[in-house]
DNA sequence: TTGATATTGATGCAACTGCATCTATATTGG
DNA sequence: CCAATATAGATGCAGTTGCATCAATATCAA
């Protein structure tokens, strides 16, 4: 019993793969051109900034961003070494730690957003009106 | 003049990133579980199969699949070593080569499609009806 | 023709990812 | 309480990617 996808589903799939690749490559290239780190760093900084005072545990970040545990562990390491993120040992769970973004991290996130936000405006905003963008988000959300 | 994307564009962007990650991780995991190689191999095999007799030049594959030149070069190497792809030296351009899929490659692509096609059916087909899938493809195409 | 430039594809090296596994601590069941 | 199991996070190693650059051939302009 080999089930096959219909052609509309395949077309949507291919468009998803292609649109994602083109869009992400574009953004990553813009960041690199501005001497800024990759998008993943932005995601971490932004989650930590949203988390505020109390910070976030790595496993929470992992779930929020859908990163692999070992990738996140090393990414945090790099970001810590780059002076963007603080690791505080966790009083109530001595296996763990709490992550906090510092001023330098917040400043970097802002600089990244200047580039990233503009890219989103140009890649999405210029090509879809608000209603279309909303419909796109709704359709994509059904795939999650 | 820092231009900012509107919230609908940002929402679409985030959905795109998330839907893509979830969907691709799902498919890659299914392939791995079936002891099959990654999606990129499928793409190469399928392009070569579509190209037929005359095969394809690496630079053509590169454009078709939006791969980086150096990644493609090494991917072809691995696929050649795996006995899936033949490299024929090119009579009219001695810098280049022509790539052909062989029987083993075609057979592998078919086995991959059994898994991949089912995944598309379940991930897209089960969640969007044909009209929705078509609308999604249309919207995503505008981003390319 | 010939020298300058562009294109095709490969590759050395550093960075990153995936996998398996490890240590340390927490939780749970008896 | 204790042993068994689960969870948090780190890490060694192999495989892959990104970057820079190279060699070989093709194209183009004078």
Automatic annotation (TrEMBL), chains A, B:
It comes from Nitratireductor pacificus pht-3B. Residues 1-144 form the HTH marR-type domain. This is MarR family transcriptional regulator. Pfam families: MarR_2. PROSITE patterns: HTH_MARR_2. Gene3D superfamilies: Winged helix-like DNA-binding domain superfamily/Winged helix DNA-binding domain (1.10.10.10). GO terms for biological process: response to stress. Coiled coil: none annotated. GO terms for molecular function: DNA-binding transcription factor activity.
């Amino acid at each position: 019993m080999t089930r096959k996808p219909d052609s509309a589903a395949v077309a949507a799939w291919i468009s998803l793969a292609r649109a994602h690749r083109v869009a992400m490559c574009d953004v990553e290239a813009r960041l690199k051109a501005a001497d800024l780190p990759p998008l993943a760093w932005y995601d971490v900084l932004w989650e930590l900034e949203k988390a505020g005072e109390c910070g976030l545990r790595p496993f929470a970040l992992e779930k929020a961003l859908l990163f692999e545990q070992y990738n996140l562990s090393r990414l945090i390491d790099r970001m810590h070494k780059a002076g963007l993120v603080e690791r505080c040992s966790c009083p109530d769970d001595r296996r763990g730690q709490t992550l906090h973004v510092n001023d330098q991290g917040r400043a970097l996130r802002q600089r990244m957003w200047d580039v990233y936000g503009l890219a989103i405006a140009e890649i999405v905003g210029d090509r879809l009106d608000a209603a279309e963008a909303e419909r796109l988000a709704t359709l994509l959300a059904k795939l999650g």
